[in-house]
Specification:
Glucose Oxidase, domain 1, Dna Ligase, domain 1, disordered N terminus, single chain, 4 domains, alpha+beta, 28% helix, 7-stranded mixed β-sheet
């Protein structure tokens, strides 16, 4: 199955980090042809009109000075319509023109780039001869660290084929800073292709000066801000220590990211996160803002709002926090919850444990989407052994178990106890007690017998991984990431049924209960299936991939996040150091290492070249296969999230696939 419907020719881009010389040549040739074909007032090749001084510009044309960030935003353009300047696609930028640097005739024009994106078209409008002017662009990169160590970097670059010596760059930056004070301490020179040779010749001058330089290879380095999930929310801003318990109306600040977290209103961390952790997957699912903000607690704008009700907004261009009244918070939360209760589907007519080879995507209503998706991948044209072979225990086993033990009545009584449901601490204790009884109960005879028979199908001594597969997780629009627990069964531990009951008990975790309650999901209609396959030991690496770049928003790349050994990307420990790779959809596009893992021996990559080639092919097949199964059009926003591992033998294994929640 080939991914022939994927559009390789268009899309969004965070930054085109590397542009091959041949591409620039084609673009410049196209521009030259355009110059020759167009003319007239305000067009390419037009003669200058009457002079308009910078101070006399109307705002629709531009300004002579940019006093603050707000003015820059008003003048800037951000989108795909960048003409030949493809490297500026989807970045926030303002173009400028300077005449007579260092003379009495010095003039600076900041173009209203929303209205005018081509220097040659703009210059005749204000009476500038394009042969005697400096033309460039100022771009704002909110994620990067400025020279003064604050978040947000402005870069200045010029025409792709122009070359400027150090002294000229120094003079130009000085002029721009006088006319745009916000550049002080926050600006860097960005040499494009035509200026790279001269920059290398002048490198020693730059190194010994105060002029900062931003290279394309620096794009993923020295990051001060990362929008993990762009959203807006309201809540009380709180600093969370290790033992503190947040509430659903807290916007929490963590110095380190916890592995598990109940529902909150927003998340800020002082350590760089992985977008594939369960905490961020829940933020995406719950549509709450989540951002990495370096040294957040040292910022006065944050310190002054601690303990207060705030509006927290995270966007690709930055974050904002502002104080609000409690009424705004109440209105916000009232708007989030569904108006009607939701009843998840469960087919209780499926009463047999079946192998993954016997079920398919359409059996999700009886075995859960986790098991059904793994079974579906057995029908894709993936290399043999890429997807583990195993079995799926149906929802009907769980329902029969709860009825036979009388635990369903205990659940019913708990759900009818309004005072208990209104007391979070008491509810936690009640759910803990319920889980203990589920783990220790004796199920019906057929239940133990069927699972014992299943255990004998595996070679003696095989440890088995028992994984949750419910009817309210791994769904489009609701991932349920991290809500339920999986367990490993070892032969010496006794009946397999006891490990399965541990998985059943996790259906009643407080975090899962709270999530279902918020979305008005009928607790009594939820059901737990169990996916069982051999457990892997001594893995070399574990990782998660998404068939779109959901973090840096480049186009044409898969996003890969890998941890050394058995440290899971979805539940990393505090000292984890993940490897981040942007893997091109096509072999010829190669890959870019965004971040290496500090834990990798010899600073090598955790995923070797053969693994990268193999996972590229696998992701292509998986994306297209599930796109068709979910009935999504090739133009739809769609991606799959895949968990993988490199076994002790060096083999790549895909262990899970679910739709990414955009």
């Amino acid at each position: 199955m080939k991914m022939e419907n994927r559009d390789f020719g268009s899309g969004r881009a965070f930054r085109v980090a590397f542009v091959k010389p041949i591409v620039w040549g084609i673009l410049l040739l196209m521009a030259t042809v355009a110059h020759g074909q167009r003319g007239g007032r305000g067009g390419f090749g037009a003669e200058p009109g009457p002079r308009v001084e910078p101070k006399d510009l109307t705002f629709d044309l531009g300004v002579g000075e940019i006093p603050d960030r707000k003015t820059f935003e008003s003048l800037s353009y951000q989108g795909p319509d960048v003409m030949r300047d493809s490297y500026l696609a989807d970045l926030e930028f303002v173009k400028f023109i300077i005449e007579g640097i260092g003379t009495a005739e010095e003039r600076v024009y900041f173009m209203n780039t929303n209205n005018h994106r081509a220097h040659p078209r703009f210059m005749p409008m204000v009476g500038i001869d394009r042969r005697h002017a400096v033309r460039g662009a100022i771009t704002y990169l909110p994620r990067l660290t400025a020279p003064d160590q604050s978040a947000g970097l402005y870069t200045v670059d010029f025409q792709p084929n122009e070359s400027w010596v150090f002294e000229e760059i120094q003079s130009i930056l000085s002029v721009l800073a006088r006319k745009m004070p916000v550049l002080e301490g926050k600006v860097a020179f960005h040499p494009l292709m035509g200026n790279m040779d001269q920059y290398e010749r002048d490198r020693s001058k730059y190194d010994s000066s105060k002029i900062a330089v931003h290279l394309d290879s620096d794009l993923y380095k020295n990051i001060s801000y990362l929008p993990m999930n762009e959203a807006e929310s309201f809540g009380r801003l709180r600093v969370m220590e290790n033992e503190a318990r947040p509430s659903p109306r807290d916007i929490v600040i963590y110095k380190t990211l916890p592995n598990q977290m109940p529902r909150v209103a927003g998340v800020i961390t002082e350590v760089r996160q992985t977008p594939l952790s369960h905490v961020n997957l829940r933020a995406v699912q719950d549509r709450v803002p989540n951002a990495y903000i370096r040294a957040a607690l040292k910022k006065e704008s944050i310190q002054t709002l601690l303990g207060k009700w705030v509006r927290f907004r995270v966007t690709s261009q930055g974050y904002s926090l502002e104080e609000v009244d409690s009424g705004a918070v109440d209105r916000h939360f009232a708007s989030l919850r569904p108006a009607e209760s939701q009843t998840p589907r469960r087919n209780l007519d499926l009463k047999e444990i079946r192998s993954l080879g016997e079920i398919g995507f359409g059996d999700a209503d009886g075995y859960g989407l986790k098991a059904a998706n793994l079974a579906a991948m057995h029908r894709f044209e993936l290399p043999q052994g890429t997807v583990p072979r195993g079995y799926a225990v149906p929802f009907s086993f769980y329902v029969d178990f709860m009825k036979a033990t009388g635990l369903n009545r205990e659940v019913g009584a708990l759900l009818e106890n309004d005072s208990l449901l209104a007391d979070p601490d008491a509810l936690r204790d009640a759910l803990k007690s319920l889980r203990k009884r589920i783990r220790g109960a004796d199920g019906p005879a057929y239940f133990d017998g069927a699972l014992d028979q299943l255990k004998r199908l595996f070679p003696k001594g095989t440890s088995l991984r028992c994984r949750s597969s419910t009817n309210n997780e791994d769904l489009p629009g609701f991932s349920g990431a991290g809500l339920y627990d999986s367990y490993t069964h070892r032969e010496e531990e006794g009946p397999l049924s006891k490990t399965v009951q541990q998985v059943y008990a996790s259906l009643w975790n407080f975090r899962a209960f709270e999530e279902r309650a918020f979305y008005r999901v009928d607790h009594q209609a939820t059901a737990m299936g169990v996916l069982i396959h051999p457990n892997y030991k001594g893995e070399r690496a574990n990782g998660v991939a998404v068939t779109d770049d959901i973090l840096y928003e480049t186009y044409g790349n898969y996003y890969l996040n890998t941890q050394l050994g058995e440290d899971l990307v979805t539940n990393p420990n505090a000292a984890s150091s993940p490897e981040e790779i942007l893997l091109g959809w096509r072999e010829r596009d190669g890959h870019e290492v965004v971040r290496r893992s500090r834990d990798a021996p010899g600073n090598n990559l955790l995923l070797q070249e053969d693994h990268l080639s193999e996972i590229r092919a696998d992701l292509t097949i998986i994306h297209e296969g599930f796109r068709q199964l979910y009935g999504r059009d090739p133009e739809d926003q769609f991606a799959m999230e895949i968990e993988y591992k490199v076994t002790a033998e060096g083999e790549l294994v895909i262990k899970q696939a679910r739709p990414w929640v955009f």
